[in-house]
Amino acid sequence: MSEEIAFAETTAAPDEPAWAAIGSMTLGVFALVAAEFLPASLLTPMAADLQVTEGAAGQAVTATALVALLSATLVAAVTRRIDRRHLLIGFSALLIASNLLVAAAPSLPLLIAGRVLLGVGLGGFWAMSAALVMRLAPEALVARALSVLFSGVSAATIFAAPVGSYLGDRLGWRSVFLFAAGLGVVTIAAQFAALPRMAPAAAAPLRMLGVVLRRPGVALGITAVMLTFAGHFAVFTYIRPFLETVTGVGVDSVSAVLLGFGLANFIGTLLAGPLIDRSLKLALFSMPLLMGMLGVGLVAIHGSLAAHAALFALWGLSFGAIPVAWSTWLTRTVPDQAETAGGLLVAAVQLAISIGAAGGGYAFDIAGGGGAVAAASVILLFTAIVVALGVNAHRIAAP
Protein backbone atom coordinates (compact mmCIF):
# COMPACT_ATOMS: atom_id res chain seq x y z
CA MET A 1 0.00 0.00 0.00
CA SER A 2 2.83 2.43 0.75
CA GLU A 3 4.16 1.88 -2.78
CA GLU A 4 0.77 2.87 -4.20
CA ILE A 5 0.63 6.03 -2.10
CA ALA A 6 4.13 7.00 -3.16
CA PHE A 7 3.14 6.97 -6.80
CA ALA A 8 -0.42 8.26 -6.48
CA GLU A 9 -1.46 10.47 -9.40
CA THR A 10 -2.84 13.32 -7.33
CA THR A 11 -3.83 16.16 -9.62
CA ALA A 12 -6.79 18.19 -8.35
CA ALA A 13 -9.93 18.53 -10.46
CA PRO A 14 -11.02 22.07 -11.44
CA ASP A 15 -13.98 23.90 -9.97
CA GLU A 16 -15.45 24.51 -13.45
CA PRO A 17 -15.38 22.20 -16.50
CA ALA A 18 -13.09 23.20 -19.39
CA TRP A 19 -15.61 22.35 -22.11
CA ALA A 20 -13.55 23.81 -24.97
CA ALA A 21 -10.60 21.58 -24.08
CA ILE A 22 -12.89 18.58 -23.68
CA GLY A 23 -14.41 19.45 -27.07
CA SER A 24 -10.98 19.46 -28.72
CA MET A 25 -10.28 16.05 -27.18
CA THR A 26 -13.63 14.86 -28.54
CA LEU A 27 -12.56 15.98 -32.00
CA GLY A 28 -9.36 13.98 -31.49
CA VAL A 29 -11.44 10.95 -30.53
CA PHE A 30 -13.54 11.44 -33.66
CA ALA A 31 -10.49 11.62 -35.96
CA LEU A 32 -8.63 8.69 -34.38
CA VAL A 33 -11.61 6.35 -34.16
CA ALA A 34 -12.80 7.25 -37.66
CA ALA A 35 -9.40 6.18 -38.99
CA GLU A 36 -9.48 3.03 -36.85
CA PHE A 37 -12.94 2.03 -38.11
CA LEU A 38 -12.49 2.86 -41.81
CA PRO A 39 -11.37 -0.66 -42.81
CA ALA A 40 -14.73 -2.03 -41.61
CA SER A 41 -16.54 -0.06 -44.35
CA LEU A 42 -13.82 -0.36 -47.01
CA LEU A 43 -12.75 -3.96 -46.49
CA THR A 44 -14.09 -5.31 -49.78
CA PRO A 45 -12.43 -2.77 -52.13
CA MET A 46 -9.23 -2.74 -50.05
CA ALA A 47 -8.97 -6.52 -50.31
CA ALA A 48 -9.66 -6.47 -54.06
CA ASP A 49 -7.13 -3.69 -54.73
CA LEU A 50 -4.40 -5.32 -52.65
CA GLN A 51 -5.30 -8.80 -53.97
CA VAL A 52 -5.86 -10.40 -50.56
CA THR A 53 -8.87 -11.97 -48.82
CA GLU A 54 -11.28 -9.95 -46.67
CA GLY A 55 -9.97 -11.84 -43.65
CA ALA A 56 -6.39 -10.83 -44.47
CA ALA A 57 -7.37 -7.20 -45.09
CA GLY A 58 -9.17 -7.22 -41.74
CA GLN A 59 -5.82 -7.72 -40.06
CA ALA A 60 -5.24 -3.99 -40.65
CA VAL A 61 -7.55 -3.62 -37.64
CA THR A 62 -5.61 -6.28 -35.75
CA ALA A 63 -2.26 -4.55 -36.36
CA THR A 64 -3.60 -1.21 -35.13
CA ALA A 65 -5.01 -2.82 -32.01
CA LEU A 66 -1.85 -4.74 -31.12
CA VAL A 67 0.36 -1.66 -31.38
CA ALA A 68 -2.22 0.40 -29.48
CA LEU A 69 -2.01 -2.20 -26.73
CA LEU A 70 1.74 -1.62 -26.34
CA SER A 71 1.38 2.14 -26.64
CA ALA A 72 -1.32 2.26 -23.96
CA THR A 73 0.74 0.12 -21.61
CA LEU A 74 3.92 2.16 -21.92
CA VAL A 75 2.73 5.74 -22.42
CA ALA A 76 2.29 6.77 -18.76
CA ALA A 77 5.79 5.63 -17.80
CA VAL A 78 7.64 6.63 -20.99
CA THR A 79 6.14 10.14 -21.23
CA ARG A 80 6.22 11.07 -17.54
CA ARG A 81 8.08 14.36 -18.27
CA ILE A 82 6.02 15.50 -21.28
CA ASP A 83 3.26 18.10 -21.05
CA ARG A 84 -0.02 16.30 -21.77
CA ARG A 85 -1.06 19.07 -24.19
CA HIS A 86 2.01 18.40 -26.35
CA LEU A 87 1.44 14.67 -26.07
CA LEU A 88 -2.12 14.82 -27.40
CA ILE A 89 -1.05 17.03 -30.30
CA GLY A 90 1.73 14.56 -31.10
CA PHE A 91 -0.78 11.72 -31.25
CA SER A 92 -2.81 13.74 -33.77
CA ALA A 93 0.33 14.19 -35.89
CA LEU A 94 0.75 10.40 -35.97
CA LEU A 95 -2.84 10.14 -37.16
CA ILE A 96 -2.04 12.33 -40.17
CA ALA A 97 1.11 10.37 -41.03
CA SER A 98 -0.76 7.07 -40.74
CA ASN A 99 -3.58 8.03 -43.09
CA LEU A 100 -1.19 9.42 -45.69
CA LEU A 101 0.87 6.22 -45.67
CA VAL A 102 -2.23 4.01 -45.92
CA ALA A 103 -3.61 6.08 -48.80
CA ALA A 104 -0.38 5.56 -50.76
CA ALA A 105 0.29 1.92 -49.79
CA PRO A 106 0.78 -0.35 -52.83
CA SER A 107 0.73 -3.56 -50.77
CA LEU A 108 -0.68 -5.02 -47.57
CA PRO A 109 2.64 -4.83 -45.62
CA LEU A 110 2.96 -1.08 -46.24
CA LEU A 111 -0.69 -0.56 -45.38
CA ILE A 112 -0.07 -2.43 -42.11
CA ALA A 113 2.91 -0.12 -41.46
CA GLY A 114 0.63 2.88 -41.72
CA ARG A 115 -1.83 1.27 -39.36
CA VAL A 116 1.00 0.70 -36.87
CA LEU A 117 1.50 4.49 -36.66
CA LEU A 118 -2.20 4.87 -35.97
CA GLY A 119 -1.94 2.29 -33.20
CA VAL A 120 0.74 4.32 -31.40
CA GLY A 121 -1.41 7.45 -31.40
CA LEU A 122 -4.66 5.63 -30.66
CA GLY A 123 -3.38 3.66 -27.69
CA GLY A 124 -1.57 6.63 -26.19
CA PHE A 125 -4.55 8.93 -26.53
CA TRP A 126 -7.02 6.51 -24.95
CA ALA A 127 -4.66 5.72 -22.10
CA MET A 128 -4.54 9.42 -21.20
CA SER A 129 -8.20 10.28 -21.89
CA ALA A 130 -9.99 9.35 -18.66
CA ALA A 131 -7.23 10.80 -16.48
CA LEU A 132 -7.20 14.08 -18.41
CA VAL A 133 -10.99 14.39 -18.29
CA MET A 134 -10.70 14.05 -14.51
CA ARG A 135 -8.34 17.08 -14.63
CA LEU A 136 -10.63 19.12 -16.92
CA ALA A 137 -13.98 18.57 -15.16
CA PRO A 138 -15.16 18.58 -11.52
CA GLU A 139 -15.77 15.15 -10.02
CA ALA A 140 -19.55 15.55 -10.22
CA LEU A 141 -19.34 16.15 -13.98
CA VAL A 142 -16.80 13.48 -14.92
CA ALA A 143 -19.43 11.00 -16.16
CA ARG A 144 -21.05 13.73 -18.27
CA ALA A 145 -17.67 14.84 -19.63
CA LEU A 146 -16.80 11.25 -20.51
CA SER A 147 -20.14 10.97 -22.30
CA VAL A 148 -19.23 14.05 -24.35
CA LEU A 149 -15.79 12.60 -25.07
CA PHE A 150 -17.20 9.27 -26.21
CA SER A 151 -19.76 10.98 -28.41
CA GLY A 152 -16.74 11.38 -30.67
CA VAL A 153 -16.65 7.58 -30.98
CA SER A 154 -20.28 7.51 -32.05
CA ALA A 155 -19.83 10.38 -34.47
CA ALA A 156 -16.82 8.55 -35.92
CA THR A 157 -18.95 5.46 -36.34
CA ILE A 158 -21.47 7.52 -38.30
CA PHE A 159 -18.72 9.01 -40.46
CA ALA A 160 -16.38 6.07 -40.92
CA ALA A 161 -18.93 3.40 -41.69
CA PRO A 162 -21.60 4.78 -44.07
CA VAL A 163 -19.71 7.82 -45.38
CA GLY A 164 -16.53 5.80 -45.81
CA SER A 165 -18.43 3.09 -47.68
CA TYR A 166 -20.22 5.61 -49.91
CA LEU A 167 -17.18 7.75 -50.74
CA GLY A 168 -15.02 4.68 -51.18
CA ASP A 169 -17.40 3.40 -53.84
CA ARG A 170 -17.50 6.77 -55.64
CA LEU A 171 -13.94 8.06 -55.21
CA GLY A 172 -11.91 5.00 -54.23
CA TRP A 173 -10.90 3.80 -50.79
CA ARG A 174 -7.57 5.65 -50.89
CA SER A 175 -9.34 9.01 -51.21
CA VAL A 176 -11.24 8.29 -47.99
CA PHE A 177 -7.97 7.94 -46.06
CA LEU A 178 -6.77 11.23 -47.57
CA PHE A 179 -9.92 12.89 -46.19
CA ALA A 180 -9.12 11.32 -42.81
CA ALA A 181 -5.64 12.88 -42.94
CA GLY A 182 -7.23 16.27 -43.56
CA LEU A 183 -9.44 15.74 -40.53
CA GLY A 184 -6.26 15.21 -38.52
CA VAL A 185 -5.02 18.66 -39.57
CA VAL A 186 -8.26 20.23 -38.30
CA THR A 187 -7.86 18.31 -35.04
CA ILE A 188 -4.36 19.64 -34.40
CA ALA A 189 -5.54 23.21 -35.01
CA ALA A 190 -8.38 22.81 -32.49
CA GLN A 191 -6.11 21.26 -29.88
CA PHE A 192 -3.53 24.04 -30.25
CA ALA A 193 -6.30 26.57 -29.64
CA ALA A 194 -8.17 24.92 -26.76
CA LEU A 195 -5.97 22.58 -24.73
CA PRO A 196 -4.35 24.11 -21.64
CA ARG A 197 -0.90 23.14 -20.46
CA MET A 198 -1.20 20.01 -18.35
CA ALA A 199 1.95 19.00 -16.53
CA PRO A 200 2.33 15.23 -16.27
CA ALA A 201 0.98 13.74 -13.08
CA ALA A 202 3.28 11.79 -10.76
CA ALA A 203 3.47 8.96 -13.27
CA ALA A 204 4.14 5.56 -11.76
CA PRO A 205 6.78 3.13 -13.01
CA LEU A 206 5.74 0.15 -15.12
CA ARG A 207 5.54 -2.15 -12.09
CA MET A 208 2.51 -0.16 -10.94
CA LEU A 209 0.51 -1.84 -13.71
CA GLY A 210 0.82 -5.06 -11.75
CA VAL A 211 0.01 -3.32 -8.47
CA VAL A 212 -3.18 -1.83 -9.93
CA LEU A 213 -4.17 -5.12 -11.54
CA ARG A 214 -3.92 -6.89 -8.17
CA ARG A 215 -6.40 -4.55 -6.53
CA PRO A 216 -9.69 -6.25 -5.56
CA GLY A 217 -12.04 -6.57 -8.53
CA VAL A 218 -9.77 -4.94 -11.11
CA ALA A 219 -8.61 -8.12 -12.86
CA LEU A 220 -12.16 -9.43 -13.22
CA GLY A 221 -13.36 -6.08 -14.53
CA ILE A 222 -10.55 -5.96 -17.09
CA THR A 223 -11.46 -9.49 -18.18
CA ALA A 224 -15.07 -8.43 -18.71
CA VAL A 225 -13.88 -5.44 -20.75
CA MET A 226 -11.85 -7.73 -23.00
CA LEU A 227 -14.72 -10.13 -23.55
CA THR A 228 -17.12 -7.30 -24.41
CA PHE A 229 -14.86 -5.63 -26.96
CA ALA A 230 -13.71 -8.92 -28.51
CA GLY A 231 -17.32 -9.91 -29.10
CA HIS A 232 -18.21 -6.54 -30.58
CA PHE A 233 -15.28 -6.31 -32.98
CA ALA A 234 -15.64 -9.89 -34.16
CA VAL A 235 -18.91 -8.61 -35.63
CA PHE A 236 -18.28 -4.94 -36.38
CA THR A 237 -15.09 -5.48 -38.41
CA TYR A 238 -16.99 -7.70 -40.84
CA ILE A 239 -20.35 -5.92 -41.05
CA ARG A 240 -19.94 -5.10 -44.73
CA PRO A 241 -19.03 -8.64 -45.84
CA PHE A 242 -21.85 -9.98 -43.62
CA LEU A 243 -24.39 -7.72 -45.28
CA GLU A 244 -23.10 -8.55 -48.75
CA THR A 245 -22.98 -12.33 -48.26
CA VAL A 246 -25.67 -13.12 -45.67
CA THR A 247 -28.19 -10.32 -46.20
CA GLY A 248 -27.39 -10.14 -49.93
CA VAL A 249 -27.37 -6.36 -50.46
CA GLY A 250 -25.25 -3.89 -52.46
CA VAL A 251 -23.11 -0.96 -51.41
CA ASP A 252 -25.97 1.58 -51.15
CA SER A 253 -27.89 -0.63 -48.71
CA VAL A 254 -24.68 -1.34 -46.80
CA SER A 255 -24.15 2.42 -46.39
CA ALA A 256 -27.73 2.87 -45.19
CA VAL A 257 -27.41 0.09 -42.60
CA LEU A 258 -24.11 1.49 -41.37
CA LEU A 259 -25.65 4.95 -41.09
CA GLY A 260 -28.43 3.53 -38.94
CA PHE A 261 -25.85 1.74 -36.82
CA GLY A 262 -23.84 4.94 -36.34
CA LEU A 263 -26.83 7.13 -35.49
CA ALA A 264 -28.09 4.58 -32.96
CA ASN A 265 -24.60 4.35 -31.50
CA PHE A 266 -24.54 8.13 -31.04
CA ILE A 267 -27.90 8.02 -29.24
CA GLY A 268 -26.65 5.18 -27.05
CA THR A 269 -23.65 7.27 -26.00
CA LEU A 270 -25.90 10.19 -25.05
CA LEU A 271 -28.17 7.89 -23.04
CA ALA A 272 -25.20 6.35 -21.24
CA GLY A 273 -24.83 9.21 -18.74
CA PRO A 274 -28.38 9.01 -17.32
CA LEU A 275 -28.24 5.19 -17.31
CA ILE A 276 -24.93 5.19 -15.43
CA ASP A 277 -26.23 7.76 -12.95
CA ARG A 278 -29.09 5.40 -12.22
CA SER A 279 -27.03 2.21 -12.05
CA LEU A 280 -23.54 1.61 -13.39
CA LYS A 281 -23.92 -2.12 -12.70
CA LEU A 282 -27.07 -2.23 -14.83
CA ALA A 283 -25.28 -0.53 -17.71
CA LEU A 284 -22.29 -2.91 -17.54
CA PHE A 285 -24.57 -5.96 -17.42
CA SER A 286 -27.43 -5.15 -19.77
CA MET A 287 -25.45 -3.97 -22.81
CA PRO A 288 -23.49 -7.19 -23.53
CA LEU A 289 -26.61 -9.21 -22.70
CA LEU A 290 -28.63 -7.31 -25.30
CA MET A 291 -25.85 -7.51 -27.90
CA GLY A 292 -25.58 -11.26 -27.43
CA MET A 293 -29.33 -11.66 -27.95
CA LEU A 294 -29.18 -9.45 -31.04
CA GLY A 295 -26.40 -11.65 -32.44
CA VAL A 296 -28.65 -14.69 -32.08
CA GLY A 297 -31.28 -12.81 -34.08
CA LEU A 298 -28.80 -11.93 -36.82
CA VAL A 299 -27.85 -15.59 -37.22
CA ALA A 300 -31.44 -16.85 -37.10
CA ILE A 301 -32.81 -14.44 -39.71
CA HIS A 302 -31.55 -14.83 -43.28
CA GLY A 303 -31.83 -12.43 -46.20
CA SER A 304 -34.06 -9.78 -44.58
CA LEU A 305 -32.61 -6.30 -45.02
CA ALA A 306 -35.18 -4.65 -42.75
CA ALA A 307 -34.63 -7.13 -39.93
CA HIS A 308 -30.83 -7.01 -40.14
CA ALA A 309 -30.86 -3.21 -40.34
CA ALA A 310 -33.01 -3.02 -37.19
CA LEU A 311 -30.84 -5.52 -35.32
CA PHE A 312 -27.61 -3.75 -36.24
CA ALA A 313 -29.13 -0.41 -35.17
CA LEU A 314 -30.01 -1.87 -31.78
CA TRP A 315 -26.48 -3.31 -31.59
CA GLY A 316 -25.07 0.17 -32.18
CA LEU A 317 -27.38 1.64 -29.53
CA SER A 318 -26.21 -0.95 -27.00
CA PHE A 319 -22.53 -0.58 -27.72
CA GLY A 320 -22.73 3.22 -27.47
CA ALA A 321 -23.01 2.99 -23.69
CA ILE A 322 -20.19 0.49 -23.18
CA PRO A 323 -17.06 2.70 -23.49
CA VAL A 324 -18.64 5.35 -21.23
CA ALA A 325 -19.68 2.75 -18.67
CA TRP A 326 -16.29 1.08 -18.42
CA SER A 327 -14.42 4.40 -18.31
CA THR A 328 -16.70 5.49 -15.46
CA TRP A 329 -16.00 2.18 -13.73
CA LEU A 330 -12.30 2.99 -14.07
CA THR A 331 -12.59 6.43 -12.46
CA ARG A 332 -14.54 4.95 -9.55
CA THR A 333 -12.42 1.85 -9.04
CA VAL A 334 -8.90 3.32 -9.39
CA PRO A 335 -9.30 7.08 -8.87
CA ASP A 336 -5.75 7.60 -7.56
CA GLN A 337 -4.01 5.82 -10.49
CA ALA A 338 -6.10 7.06 -13.40
CA GLU A 339 -3.30 7.28 -15.99
CA THR A 340 -1.81 3.91 -15.10
CA ALA A 341 -5.21 2.21 -14.90
CA GLY A 342 -6.25 3.98 -18.09
CA GLY A 343 -3.30 2.43 -19.88
CA LEU A 344 -4.25 -0.97 -18.49
CA LEU A 345 -7.86 -0.56 -19.61
CA VAL A 346 -6.92 0.58 -23.10
CA ALA A 347 -4.38 -2.22 -23.45
CA ALA A 348 -7.11 -4.70 -22.57
CA VAL A 349 -9.49 -3.11 -25.08
CA GLN A 350 -6.92 -3.11 -27.88
CA LEU A 351 -5.93 -6.71 -27.18
CA ALA A 352 -9.60 -7.60 -27.29
CA ILE A 353 -10.04 -5.74 -30.59
CA SER A 354 -7.10 -7.60 -32.12
CA ILE A 355 -8.44 -10.93 -30.89
CA GLY A 356 -11.95 -10.09 -32.04
CA ALA A 357 -10.83 -8.89 -35.48
CA ALA A 358 -8.45 -11.82 -35.98
CA GLY A 359 -10.86 -14.41 -34.62
CA GLY A 360 -13.77 -12.91 -36.51
CA GLY A 361 -11.75 -12.95 -39.73
CA TYR A 362 -10.83 -16.59 -39.20
CA ALA A 363 -14.45 -17.52 -38.46
CA PHE A 364 -15.62 -15.53 -41.48
CA ASP A 365 -13.18 -17.25 -43.85
CA ILE A 366 -14.15 -20.68 -42.45
CA ALA A 367 -17.87 -20.40 -41.67
CA GLY A 368 -19.04 -17.15 -43.26
CA GLY A 369 -20.65 -14.15 -41.58
CA GLY A 370 -23.08 -16.26 -39.58
CA GLY A 371 -20.24 -18.17 -37.94
CA ALA A 372 -18.47 -14.98 -36.83
CA VAL A 373 -21.67 -13.52 -35.34
CA ALA A 374 -22.58 -16.77 -33.58
CA ALA A 375 -19.17 -16.98 -31.88
CA ALA A 376 -19.41 -13.32 -30.82
CA SER A 377 -22.89 -13.89 -29.35
CA VAL A 378 -21.61 -16.68 -27.09
CA ILE A 379 -18.80 -14.42 -25.85
CA LEU A 380 -21.15 -11.52 -25.12
CA LEU A 381 -23.72 -13.62 -23.27
CA PHE A 382 -20.93 -15.09 -21.14
CA THR A 383 -19.70 -11.54 -20.45
CA ALA A 384 -23.09 -10.57 -19.04
CA ILE A 385 -22.85 -13.51 -16.62
CA VAL A 386 -19.35 -12.46 -15.53
CA VAL A 387 -20.50 -8.89 -14.85
CA ALA A 388 -23.62 -10.00 -12.99
CA LEU A 389 -21.75 -12.38 -10.71
CA GLY A 390 -18.49 -10.61 -9.99
CA VAL A 391 -17.92 -7.03 -11.16
CA ASN A 392 -18.07 -4.35 -8.46
CA ALA A 393 -19.52 -1.07 -9.72
CA HIS A 394 -19.40 0.94 -6.45
CA ARG A 395 -17.05 3.83 -5.83
CA ILE A 396 -13.83 2.75 -4.10
CA ALA A 397 -11.93 5.28 -2.03
CA ALA A 398 -8.29 5.89 -2.98
CA PRO A 399 -5.81 4.29 -0.56
> What is the residue-averaged pLDDT?
81
CATH topology: Growth Hormone, Chain: A
Low-confidence stretches: 1-10
Structural class: mainly alpha
- The total strand number stands at 0
Query: What's the structural domain tally?
Result: 1
Total helical elements: 16
Distance between the termini: 7 Å
Describe this structure in words.
The protein is built from 16 helices and no strands. By secondary structure, the protein is an all-alpha fold. The chain has one domain: MFS general substrate transporter like domains (Growth Hormone, Chain: A, Up-down Bundle), CATH 1.20.1250.20. Helix 4 packs across helix 16, helix 5 runs antiparallel to helix 8 and helix 9 packs parallel to helix 16. About 60% of the residues are buried.
